[in-house]
């Protein structure tokens, strides 16, 4: 399963908040029921990496990590994509 982009286009939502929201939506749970994001990635560093990136268009890149049964990809455009690890294993 791959989710659609989950980031608030207004830029009011940080990348770490978008990741938590996307994971909670995908799993059908309250965000507070998820394992803490900081167990797998530093949320402040993730936010700082892409701070203002979409607005000025100069920074490009992406960060990928795995958590809660998903591969998470966060891009400099503010998009968050989730891919089920089960789906990844099935395609190998």
Describe the model:
The protein has 92 residues and is α+β, with helices and mostly antiparallel strands. It has one domain (15-91). Helix content is 34%, strand content 18%. The chain contains four helices and three strands; from the N terminus they run αααβββα. It has helices at residues 15-27, 43-49, 53-56, 85-91; strands spanning 62-67, 70-75, 80-84. Strands 1-2-3 form a three-stranded antiparallel beta sheet. β2 (70-75) and β3 form a beta hairpin. The longest helix has 13 residues, at 15-27.
List keywords for this structure.
alpha+beta; 3 strands; 92 residues; 4 helices
Produce the secondary structure layout.
Blueprint (H helix, E strand, L loop, with lengths): L14 H13 L15 H7 L3 H4 L5 E6 L2 E6 L4 E5 H7 L1
Antiparallel strand pairs: 1-2, 2-3
Largest sheet: 3 strands, antiparallel
Q: First CA to last CA: what distance? A: 15 Å
Uncertain segments of ≥5 residues (pLDDT<50)?
none
Number of E strands: 3
Average pLDDT taken over every residue: 83
């Amino acid at each position: 399963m791959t989710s659609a982009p989950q980031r608030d286009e207004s830029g009011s939502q940080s990348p770490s908040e978008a990741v938590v929201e996307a994971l909670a939506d995908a799993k059908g749970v309250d965000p507070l029921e998820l394992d803490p994001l900081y167990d797998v990635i530093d949320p402040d560093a993730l936010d700082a990496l892409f701070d203002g990136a979409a607005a000025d268009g100069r920074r490009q890149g992406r960060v990928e990590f795995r958590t809660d049964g998903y591969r998470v990809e966060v891009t400099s455009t503010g998009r968050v994509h989730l891919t089920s690890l089960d789906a990844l294993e099935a395609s190998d």
